[in-house]
Design goal:
Blueprint: H1 3-17, H2 22-29, H3 33-41, H4 48-57, H5 62-66, H6 70-78
Amino acid sequence: MDITSNFQKAVAKCLTDKKMTQLDLSVITGISQPSICRYLAGKRSPSLAQVVNIATALELNPIALLTYPQQVAVISQLL
């Protein structure tokens, strides 16, 4: 499994767990909703700064988004 796939799955899971939408994430991060949609669809890869921004919005360490499912599964249980 590659980092992009890990990121996609981690963000999707976190959004579901937190009952957030892509639009909610967009408002919090300042990243456009279409960009977030493209990241989650694997059509585009976020920059490192965007990964950090998204992780912060989801209250996660950026490494957790890139090493899913190992880290996110544990962290999500703590929320």
